TrEMBL record:
Catalytic activity reported: N(1)-(5-phospho-beta-D-ribosyl)glycinamide + (6R)-10-formyltetrahydrofolate = N(2)-formyl-N(1)-(5-phospho-beta-D-ribosyl)glycinamide + (6S)-5,6,7,8-tetrahydrofolate + H(+)
Protein's name in the database: Phosphoribosylglycinamide formyltransferase
Pfam families, A to Z: Formyl_trans_N
Family membership: Belongs to the GART family.
Entry's Gene Ontology BP terms: 'de novo' IMP biosynthetic process
HAMAP family: PurN
Record site: Raises pKa of active site His: 160
Transcription among keywords: no
Function: Catalyzes the transfer of a formyl group from 10-formyltetrahydrofolate to 5-phospho-ribosyl-glycinamide (GAR), producing 5-phospho-ribosyl-N-formylglycinamide (FGAR) and tetrahydrofolate.
Length: 219
C-alpha cells in the first residue's frame, strides 16, 4: 500500500467526517457506529449504508436511523469489473472521508481501491495475519490456539492483508464452538471498531508501509 498522511477529518461542530458503511448481513457493527455518531463529539456521521443484496437487516437498521441506503448486486452486472465500477460510483456519490467494510462479503475491486485507497477499513474476527478469510473463528478453533481476537485493518488488494490499525484479544474457552467464539469476538469487535474509527477521524493517521500511526499531527 502506498504511503498516506491524512490529518484529522473532524473539523469541529457542524463538520463531522463522512462515513459510508458497506455490509452484507445483520449490521450489528453498523448499528454500533450509528449509535456512536449520535454523539456530536464522536466526530463522524454515517452518510450512507450500502449492501450487495436486498432485504437484509443491516439496511433496515440504516432506514430506521434515517440514513440513505443503496444496493449494488453482482448479478445485476455482466462481470466483476462492471460491478466494481458501479460500486465505486455509488459510494463516490456520497463523498466519503472514510469507508467501513463491516461484514461486507465481497472483495473490493481495483477500481474501488484506486479511488478510495487508504480510506477503506475492514473488520476481521481473528488476529491477523493469522487466519485470514471468511472462517477466522473456525480456523482458530481447528488450529487449537488459546487466544484469538479481532483486527481492524486498511483494505488492500489481498485477502485481509492490509496494514493493521488495531487489534484486541479474545480467549478461546474449553467449551467454545465456532458460534460461541464468534459471538464473543463480535462483541469485542464492535467496541474496537467504534474506538478506532473515532480516533482515525478525530486524530488523523499515517500509513507508512505496513505501519499505521494514529495522531501526531500538529493542531
Amino acid at each position: 500500500m502506498a504511503e498516506y498522511q491524512v490529518p484529522p477529518l473532524y473539523q469541529g461542530p457542524g463538520r463531522p467526517a463522512r462515513l459510508v458503511i458497506l455490509l452484507s448481513g445483520t449490521g450489528t457493527n453498523a448499528q454500533a457506529l450509528l449509535d456512536a455518531c449520535a454523539d456530536p463529539a464522536y466526530g463522524a456521521r454515517v452518510v450512507a449504508v450500502g449492501a450487495d443484496r436486498d432485504g437484509i437487516e443491516g439496511l433496515e437498521r440504516a432506514c430506521k436511523a434515517g440514513v440513505p441506503t443503496f444496493v449494488v448486486r453482482t448479478q445485476d452486472y455482466p462481470d466483476r469489473p462492471a460491478w466494481d465500477q458501479a460500486l465505486t460510483d455509488a459510494v463516490a456519490a456520497y463523498e466519503p472521508d472514510l469507508i467501513v467494510s463491516a461484514g461486507f462479503m465481497k472483495l473490493l475491486g481495483p477500481r474501488f481501491l484506486a479511488r478510495f485507497g487508504g480510506r477503506v477499513i475492514n473488520t476481521h474476527p481473528a488476529l491477523l495475519p493469522s487466519f485470514p478469510g471468511v472462517h477466522g473463528p473456525r480456523d482458530a478453533l481447528t488450529y487449537g490456539v488459546k487466544i484469538t481476537g479481532c483486527t481492524i485493518h486498511f483494505v488492500d488488494s489481498g485477502v485481509d492483508s492490509g496494514p493493521i490499525i488495531a487489534q484486541a484479544p479474545v480467549p478461546v474457552l474449553a467449551d467454545d464452538d465456532e458460534v460461541s467464539l464468534h459471538e464473543r469476538i463480535k462483541s469485542v469487535e464492535r467496541t474496537l471498531l467504534v474506538e478506532t474509527v473515532g480516533r482515525l477521524v478525530r486524530e488523523g493517521y499515517r500509513i507508512e508501509g505496513r505501519r499505521v500511526q494514529i495522531g501526531g499531527f500538529d493542531q
